[in-house]
Amino acid sequence: MDGKFYAFRGVLDGFNSDYDFPIAPAELVRREEPEYPAIADKYGTVKLKIWISPNGSVRRLEYVGGHPLLAESALKAVKAWKYETNSKETTATVELRF
């Protein structure tokens, strides 16, 4: 693993995508890298559902599953992500791979 995380497989406005892509459905403008907890296993994943407000900020996020020792770090990082503006709120499901 290269020490970076990757977000893939998204949901946009309730439509499930069968295609993997490197970011959530909206264009990611700013991404915060999560910290890797020292007590966690070498690698892991965290799945989150996010609500992206029309101004591009992550309005709400919810831990869906994955490695519990990585959850707090993933939530903190994704909360700081910024997307392009949109005409309405969108939702996405992202999986972070550490």
Task: Summarize the model shown.
With 98 residues, this protein is mainly beta. It has one helix at 68-79, and strands at residues 7-8, 11-12, 15-16, 28-30, 45-52, 58-66, 82-83, 90-97.
Structural overview:
- By secondary structure, the chain is mainly beta.
- It has a single domain (7-31, 40-97), classed as TolA/TonB C-terminal domain.
- It has 1 helix and 8 strands.
- The strands form 3 sheets. It has a 4-stranded antiparallel sheet with strand order 1-8-5-6.
- A hairpin with a 5-residue loop joins strand 5 (45-52) and strand 6 (58-66).
- The chain starts with 6 loop residues before the first strand and ends with a strand.
- Residues 1-24 have low confidence and may be disordered.
What is the fold's blueprint, element by element?
Elements: E1 7-8, E2 11-12, E3 15-16, E4 28-30, E5 45-52, E6 58-66, H1 68-79, E7 82-83, E8 90-97
Antiparallel strand pairs: 1-8, 2-3, 4-7, 5-6, 5-8
SS-based structural class? mainly beta
User: Number of DSSP helices?
Assistant: 1
- Radius of gyration over C-alpha positions, nearest whole angstrom: 13 Å
Instruction: Please identify, by name, the CATH architecture.
Output: 2-Layer Sandwich
Strand order of the largest sheet: 1-8-5-6
Low-confidence stretches: 1-24
N- and C-termini, Cα separation? 8 Å
The succession of helices and strands, N to C, reads EEEEEEHEE
| Count of structural domains | 1
How does the major sheet shape up?
4 strands, antiparallel
Average pLDDT metric: 77
Total beta strands:
8
CATH topology: TolA/TonB C-terminal domain
Instruction: Report helical residue fraction.
Output: 10-25%
So what's the CATH class? Alpha Beta
Overall geometry comes to elongated
